[in-house]
Amino acid sequence: MNTDKAFRLSLFFFTISSFIIVASIVVSLIATSYPIFMRDGLSFIIRGAWNPVREDYGILPALLGTLITSAIAIAIALPLSISLAVFSSELIPGKFKIIMNNISDLMASLPSVIYGLWGLFVLAPILHQFVMMPLHTHLGFIPLFSTRPVPTNLFTAGVLLAIMIVPFASSVIREAYSAIPYYLKEAAYSLGMNRWEVIRMMLGYIKSAIFAGTFLALGRAMGETVAVAMVVGNIMRFPKSLFDMGYTISSLIASQFPNAEVYEFMVPALYGGAFMLFIMGLAINLIGFSMMRRMVVHR
Amino acid sequence: MEICDLNVWYGGNHVLKNINLKIPKNVIFAIMGPSGCGKSTLLRAMNRLLELNPTAKVSGQVMVDGINIYSDKIDVTWVRRQFGMVFQIPNPFPHLSIYDNVAIGPKLNGLTKSKSELDQLVRWALEKAYLWDEVKDDLRRPAAALSGGQQQRLCIARAIALKPRIILMDEPTANLDPVAAMKIEELMLELKEDYTIVIVTHNPQQAARVSDYVAFLYLGELVEVGETSQVFTRPINKLTEKYVVGRIG
Ligand SMILES: Nc1ncnc2c1ncn2[C@@H]1O[C@H](COP(=O)(O)OP(=O)(O)O)[C@@H](O)[C@H]1O
Ligand SMILES: [Mg+2]
Question: Which of B44, B82, B84, B100 could form a disulfide with B50 if both were Cys (CB 3.0 to 4.6 A apart)?
Answer without folding.
Answer: B44
